[in-house]
Amino acid sequence: MSNVKTEVILSTCVDERYPAANIVDGKPNTYFVTTGLYPHEIILGIKGGSSNISRIVLTSSGIKKLRLEKCTDVAPSKFETIVDCEVANRENNGRQVEQFQLNKATAGSGVTFLKVVIASGYEEFAGVYELSVEGDAPTS
């Protein structure tokens, strides 16, 4: 099992000061900030093909309802929900660290794209600091 490299393909909101690409840059003090009304979506591609994913770790602030979806197609078109949860609020806008374990043979199997859906927040804006993915090395 290893870190699976991802890249941001699409974000439904854009603030050039806090781009969605910050969530996969490996720097803990950079982040992405939502803009305007919920929901917000970020689509990430798995670099190098598809991967059987066993764990996703999301570091954020202000997210209330979160959904993670996977796509196993060659294009990010048909997604299925693999995580749907409410995230506990942290005092004074503290960081939320959520770890999601996936069965590589079922929910985490053959992932080519991940979608992060921030369905609602505790405030008007939410932030995502980092998203890391662990699993098998990608295959083409």
Q: Which segments are poorly predicted (pLDDT under 50) over 5 or more consecutive residues?
A: none
Termini Cα gap: 17 Å
Radius of gyration: 14 Å
Look at the structure and name the CATH superfamily: Galactose-binding domain-like
Shape: globular
Give me the secondary-structure category. mainly beta
The CATH topology is: Jelly Rolls
Q: What is the domain total for the residues?
A: 1
What does the main sheet amount to? 5 strands, antiparallel
**Total of helices:** 0
Known CATH architecture: Sandwich
- Which class in CATH terms? Mainly Beta
- Assembly type of the chains comes to single chain
How much helix is in the residues? Answer: under 10%
| Average predicted confidence as pLDDT | 94
What is the ordering of alpha helices and beta strands?
EEEEEEEEEE
Percent of sequence in beta strands: over 45%
How many β strands by DSSP? 10
Task: Name the descriptors.
single chain, 140 residues, mainly beta, Jelly Rolls, 5-stranded antiparallel sheet, 10 strands, Galactose-bd-like_sf, IFT25
Question: What do you see in this structure?
Answer:
- One of its GO terms (cellular component) is intraciliary transport particle B.
- There is one protein chain.
- Helices cover 0% and strands 47% of the residues.
- With 140 residues, it is an all-beta fold.
- The chain has one domain: Galactose-binding domain-like (Jelly Rolls, Sandwich), CATH 2.60.120.
- The strands form two sheets. Strands 1, 3, 5, 8 and 10 form a five-stranded antiparallel sheet that branches. Strands 2-4-9-6-7 form a five-stranded antiparallel sheet, with no helix packed on it.
- The model has no long low-confidence stretch (mean pLDDT 94).
